[in-house]
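Section 3.1: Structural characterization of target chains.
Under the original work plan, the team committed to producing a structural model for every single-chain target entering the pipeline before any wet-lab resources were allocated. The record below documents one such target. The sequence was received from the expression subgroup and is listed exactly as submitted; it comprises 220 residues.
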Amino acid sequence: MEASKPAVYAYLRVSTDKGQTTNNQRKTIEDAKFVVDEWYSEDGVSGKINALDRPVFSKLMEKAVAGSEVVTVSLDRLGRNAIDILNTVERFKEKEIKLRCLALGDVDLTSMAGQILVHLMSLIADVERQSLSIRTKAGLARTKAEGTLLGRRMKVSHKALRACVKGRAEGVSWAKLAAEHSVDKNTLLQTVKTWGDKPDEYQVRWEKQINQAANKLLEV
């Protein structure tokens, strides 16, 4: 079996395979005039998973030998936290493989200057991500407290549904109920007709949709 020779590899990643592709990442690398020998694409793999634990990235690390070069578009394609990214860069350094990130310019991240740059950028990304998480969770808490629904599928909150069922039983008109809860009258009528006798099941679905929206916001 012929031993591997130094080569140029490209690493691409998207967190989900539902609507996301690595096409733009590939085009960015091609536009930067890199002559890539092999492309490694990780589809539907979250950045939460350490780079060295990902199946495709692991294959890349096994294949690449000293003198090789790996290029990726941005630092977050490698990982979501500073420790993971720095560990990955250190592994490249041990194997004498150059690592280039186009978003950080044409610098070898395994060099001293590159490692300092990676450290600073990954720490900044950590702070920004934590800030986003805090803001998102606060927003979701406020949304739940206000009884507002995230998303388009279910336009009436579970609290509004319960209130409208009670209101109709007391003789309140559809028009008045719709105005009180700021929803379309026909939408409200259909929601009560479909879910009025099973509000608990509706609440479960409503909260599930909110959680899905939160996960999508926080995904990287």
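Residues 136 and 174 are 34 Å apart (CA to CA).
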